[in-house]
Amino acid sequence: MLSFIARRALQTIPVIFGVTLATFLLSQIIPGDPTDILLGPGASEEARAQLRQALGLDRSAVGQYLLYLQNLVQGDFGQSLTFSKPVSEVLASRMMNTALLAFAAIVLASVLGVAAGTFAALKPGSLRDRALTVVVLFLNSMPSFWLGLLLILAFGLQLRLLPVSGMTSGDGGLVNLLAHMLLPTLTLAAWSLAAIARMTRSSLLDVIGSDYVRTARSRGIGEWRIVFFHALPNAMPAVITVIGMQMGFLLSGAVMTETVFSWPGIGLAMYQAISTRDIPLIQGGILLLAVAFVLINFTIDILYAYFNPKIKLA
Amino acid sequence: MNAISTPMDALRPAPVLEVSDLRVSYGSASRPIHVVNDVSFAVGRGEALGIVGESGCGKSQTMLAVLGLLPSSGRISAGKVTFEGQDLARLSARQLRGLRGKGMALISQDALSALNPSMTIGTQMAEPMIHYDGMSRAAARERCIELLDLVGIPGAAARLGAYPHELSGGMRQRVLIATAISGNPKVLIADEPTTALDVTIQAQILRLIDRLRRDLGMALVIITHDLGVVAGVADQVAVMYAGRVVEAGSTDAIFSEPRHPYTRALLEAIPKLDEPADKRLTPIAGLPPDPRRAPAGCAFHPRCRLVQPLCREQLPALEAKDAGAGHLIRCSVDPWARTATPEARGVSASGALS
Amino acid sequence: MSEAAATAGEDTTRSAGFGRLFRNGTLVTGLAILGVMVFVAVFADLIAPHDAFRANPIARYLPPLSPGYLLGTDELGRDILSRLIYGARLALLVAVVPTVIALVIGGAVGLFAGYAGGVWDSIVMRIFDVMFAFPGILLALGISAALGPGLSSMIIAMIVVTIPAFGRIVRGVVLGVKEELYVEAATALGYGHLRIALRHVLPNVLAPVLIYGTLQTGRNVILAASLSFLGLGPQPPTPDWGQMLGGGRMALATAAHVATIPGIAIALLAIGFNLLGDAARDLLDPRMKRDRD
């Protein structure tokens, strides 16, 4: 197990370096003179030269990348134009808000997705099974921000049941936070819920048709024990893989969802950065979310190996 | 009713498991596809019945129907299954579940896929004992060790914590057998129990099954494509083809006087010890029919070398003919009838098929 | 399934094959949706009741079913139906074009990596690994933002992020084919490399690429709408569904139709491609029925 973790870690490190290289390249593909954006077109050539030197723009591409890496290691993600603060500060103050939303969404999507997939798989071809197929198709084809707007319209503006913007209001408190979280969480979870339900269903159907489930039945094991103790554990590895993949959608979906619900996370900051062409903030946000995604996948792989005795030995 | 019966019936115990005129169907009610047709047999306590046929002949479907484990798309559309006099169709799902494992148990072909890969041997063996029989964990553990000893697994206690993939093929099959007999079943159904194993292990496993059957007084139904397996273990044999029994009788009768061309062909396809090693085995040409497009008349006629016009039109009945009592044959031509001339068997009297 | 198979087995005439396709509801629905979309896009000039660009300050935020404005008007008083109809052109363009270009580039790269093997293969695969490490729309968002908002930036961004998946599929097929004996035989016979690659790989790669490509086109509908919603797509006043949705968001409380109606169009187009992809998967490759995406 330890050697497995070590091997997997060794594969992860180059990917993280690659990710930093890719985010660095983003600043290289900006058309025109980057000092234009920072200083405006009317700036003097002297000021431009000074800024270039300060930012290391006078160095070669390799030199610039090394400087970028060096800065990253020191926690320097550059300066955000939108917020007039270091990018690291902007990201740090918002990281937990995004994590909270993404975590709530993955929990919701996993619980509901596994439940719905199981419910459908127990009676393949039945009405509820076909209903799930249709719901999955719709959730898969619906832009999440549109779903968010529909939820705002229904629960916020028409029924006036839930707040539709921000994280807290009034005195705050846990109930207030949860009320603010409900709609964004649902919006963010929808797509993943569909994918998880679909995978749970097909994986469970495979397992229920397997020899060992037949053996268990032939020994008089009851249906609910078969589903929960024999079928689900064996269907889980495939489901866990999908859940891991969904973490990626959740982290990027946060940009859309946070924008729609004005949730003060990294995604909302990135949205605000787009209109001001605040590339350092966009770079930093992408880097942070991508590294988080890589680390989550790493963790999932370890969990996967832990739950699957066959891999553990290999 | 075509149950296998002999003049010794009076001496035989009442059958534990009796299947009469069983039909298993798939597909819609308006266009059903029958995979098992008019199958009848009975096994008593301590008896062993072999059901023989190529894959796809309906033998496994028969046993799944008996156990009530047909997939949801399949159903018993005619006939009945009686266990200790009870019609299984009349039992509730709960009663049927109670019967499985305790009344009837199953050993499947491939122990690796038949054992749950994510549970240790001990956990899956003990599951029904703890959760349905109210045994304590300690008692269940003792019982599991006892069972593993019984099937000849050395160091049983140490094996309880192993996962199926950590054992050898033969070991796994023993574990599967131990699992099957853990509920003291009255009928043990073994579906190709040795097919996935090496030849040497096959013999050991067969001896084990045979010993357990005698020691524990179980009725045994052994399903196989290999007449050689049946010869060593079964008292009675039913040969199935395309969902129907084509020949049935005592093992002695079937081996000494095979009457159906299909049975003959199966016998010619297995090597015999008393024949020169260089004698050519005769495989059966062609494949069993697709149940969706079963041929008219006798289902075997497209592959039968001795086919007559009648065979293409009329489905023969399973009947006694002039063989010994209890020996039933489903063949219109019956080329090996005691009264038949060699000509009826074609030019070469030695083989029914090429 | 068994009945359909039996029918197909007995009767292999062409008409029976088409009959089976027509009984496939998924395929028919998907094709119908896409057919309508293409029709609308092609004949937009004839169908659209109004000029999609003309603002009408006295007819702002008209609700649906207003006289002359079936789906109402937006914040500038432009006819929503007409903008939707013209928007279909752009929606189809940004869904299909990036997918096709990414397919060609990704396919070529995958073919090269799988065929060359060794160091080249490793380099390409590591690059793909890094690109897969960026979750969802983030990489596209970054590229689009760095290049500056606009249609061409968005399309470039979409192409870049779609390449790796096609590359991986084609490389996988190439590796499989390379193992097959017939390629060894073909090499021994002295055929050119390119010819071997095209002749043996192409037939094997067709089904998976077609299936994945159709499903990816559906995903690209959503991706384009998302980028556009964030302001990274075609700039106003171009009639673009994602942008229409984003523009209507501000008036959700008073004129919900401005934002909700374009969403229906986006979802419908995505459903069309997803249904077609599912149908392609069922028809072309039964083994892929197990969910893998």
TrEMBL record, chain A:
Highest taxon above the source species: Bacteria
Compartments in which it is found: Cell membrane
Keywords in alphabetical order: Cell membrane, Membrane, Transmembrane, Transmembrane helix, Transport
Gene3D superfamilies the record matches: MetI-like
Membrane-crossing residue ranges in chain numbering: 12-30, 99-122, 134-157, 177-197, 224-243, 249-274, 286-307
Main location: membrane
Pfam family name, one: BPD_transp_1
Residue ranges constituting the ABC transmembrane type-1 domain according to the UniProt record: 95-304
Its membrane topology: Multi-pass membrane protein
Signal sequence range: none
PANTHER family for the chain: DIPEPTIDE TRANSPORT SYSTEM PERMEASE PROTEIN DPPB-RELATED (PTHR43163)
Family affiliation: Belongs to the binding-protein-dependent transport system permease family.
Protein name stated in the entry: Peptide/nickel transport system permease protein
UniProtKB/TrEMBL annotation, chain B:
Transmembrane segments: none
Single Gene Ontology MF annotation: ATP hydrolysis activity
UniProt-recorded name of the protein: Oligopeptide/dipeptide ABC transporter ATP-binding protein
Lineage of the organism: Bacteria, Pseudomonadati, Pseudomonadota, Alphaproteobacteria, Hyphomicrobiales
ABC transporter domain ranges (all copies): 17-267
PROSITE patterns listed in its UniProt record: ABC_TRANSPORTER_1, ABC_TRANSPORTER_2
Subcellular location per the Swiss-Prot or TrEMBL entry: Cell inner membrane
Domain of life: Bacteria
Main location (coarse class): membrane
Family matches, as CDD domains: ABC_NikE_OppD_transporters
Keyword match Transmembrane helix: no
GO biological process: peptide transport; transmembrane transport
GO cellular component: plasma membrane
Family: Belongs to the ABC transporter superfamily.
Membrane topology, record value: Peripheral membrane protein
TrEMBL record, chain C:
Gene3D superfamilies, alphabetized: MetI-like
Sorted UniProt keywords: Cell membrane, Membrane, Transmembrane, Transmembrane helix, Transport
Protein name: Peptide/nickel transport system permease protein
Localisation per UniProt entry: Cell membrane
Entries under SUPFAM superfamilies matching the protein: MetI-like (SSF161098)
Occurrences of domain ABC transmembrane type-1 (ranges): 88-277
A Pfam family assignment: BPD_transp_1
Superkingdom assignment: Bacteria
Transmembrane portions of the chain: 27-48, 90-116, 136-161, 205-230, 250-277
Protein's UniProt keywords contain Cell cycle: no
Chief place of localization: membrane
Keyword ATP-binding: no
PANTHER family: OLIGOPEPTIDE TRANSPORT SYSTEM PERMEASE PROTEIN APPC, PEPTIDE ABC TRANSPORTER PERMEASE PROTEIN
Family membership: Belongs to the binding-protein-dependent transport system permease family.
Its membrane topology: Multi-pass membrane protein
